[in-house]
């Protein structure tokens, strides 16, 4: 049986909790976009402001992954999530200037959700 010191265990549990929180936040963000598109356009403000609350989570996940001594592949994937978030912000901010490239916004959101779930799956497999 493998025993871990408390800081490593705390970092691993924290990483997994943040990964789940991030995935749920992305799903909620897509839901808010759907509300704005299909119910009431006044929901765009919720969609825009909510992203600011969870956009930093991948960076915290990367720090916890490093602290927990998780594989560097997971750390880089967390940094990649943050890069995708920057891509989301850029496609939203410059949508009127980049034309058809703005359509990458929802595609990046799908990738964000998929990669975040894949990180959770990878972490769970590593724990076994």
From TrEMBL:
Pfam families: DUF6220
UniProt cross-references to InterPro entries, sorted A to Z: DUF6220 (IPR046192)
Record carries keyword Glycosyltransferase: no
Domain of life: Bacteria
Membrane-spanning intervals of the chain: 12-38, 50-67, 74-94, 100-120
Entry keyword Transmembrane: yes
Alphabetical keyword list: Membrane, Transmembrane, Transmembrane helix
Full protein name: DUF4345 domain-containing protein
């Amino acid at each position: 049986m493998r025993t871990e010191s408390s800081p490593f265990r705390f970092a691993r549990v924290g990483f997994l909790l943040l990964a789940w929180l991030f995935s749920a936040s992305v799903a909620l963000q897509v839901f808010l976009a759907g509300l704005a598109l299909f119910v009431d356009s006044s929901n765009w403000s919720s969609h825009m402001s909510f992203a600011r609350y969870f956009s930093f989570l991948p960076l915290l996940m990367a720090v916890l992954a490093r602290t927990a001594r998780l594989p560097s592949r997971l750390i880089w994937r967390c940094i990649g999530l943050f890069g995708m978030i920057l891509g989301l912000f850029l496609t939203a901010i410059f949508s009127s200037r980049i034309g058809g490239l703005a359509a990458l916004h929802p595609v990046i959101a799908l990738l964000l959700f998929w990669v975040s779930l894949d990180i959770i799956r990878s972490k769970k497999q590593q724990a076994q």
